[in-house]
């Protein structure tokens, strides 16, 4: 794991990023959250799965059905919907 930009040394972890999105929403930074969640959702769609992590070049790695990524993104989407309902 000592190589730069590999796994825990620079990988892109959607499950962690989605937790940051949740906190942005929770703290009123909904526009920022919306802007930042787009690339995460795009990666899921383009790669046809909820991968565990992505290399710096966007190549997916790990489990294709990583429930941590699926769950945290789903919760963020639910929070967006709840915010939208409350702020019609």
Concise synopsis of the structure shown:
With 88 residues, this protein is mainly alpha-helical. Helix content is 58%, strand content 5%. It has helices at residues 14-26, 30-47, 67-86, and strands spanning 53-54, 60-61.
Instruction: Tell the overall outline.
Output: elongated
Return residue spans where pLDDT drops below 50 for at least 5 consecutive residues. Answer: none
What's the alpha carbon Rg, rounded to whole Å?
Answer: 14 Å
Mean pLDDT rating: 93
Q: Which bin fits the share of residues in helices?
A: 55-70%
Total count of helical runs of at least 4 residues = 3
Structure description:
- This protein is mainly alpha-helical and 88 residues long.
- It has one domain.
- It is built from three helices and two strands; from the N terminus they run H-H-E-E-H.
- Strands 1-2 form a two-stranded antiparallel sheet.
- It is elongated, with a radius of gyration of 14 Å.
- The mean pLDDT is 93.
Give the topology.
Elements: H1 14-26, H2 30-47, E1 53-54, E2 60-61, H3 67-86
Helix pairs in contact: 1-2, 1-3
Structural descriptors:
mainly alpha; elongated; 88 residues; two-stranded antiparallel sheet; 3 helices
């Amino acid at each position: 794991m000592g190589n730069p930009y590999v796994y825990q040394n620079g990988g892109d972890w959607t499950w962690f990023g989605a937790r940051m999105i949740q906190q942005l929403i929770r703290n009123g930074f909904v526009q920022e959250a919306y802007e930042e969640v787009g690339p995460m959702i795009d990666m899921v769609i383009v790669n046809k799965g909820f991968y565990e992590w992505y290399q710096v070049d966007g190549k997916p790695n790990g489990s294709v059905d990583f429930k941590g990524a699926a769950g945290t993104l789903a919760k963020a989407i639910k929070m967006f919907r709840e915010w939208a309902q409350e702020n019609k």
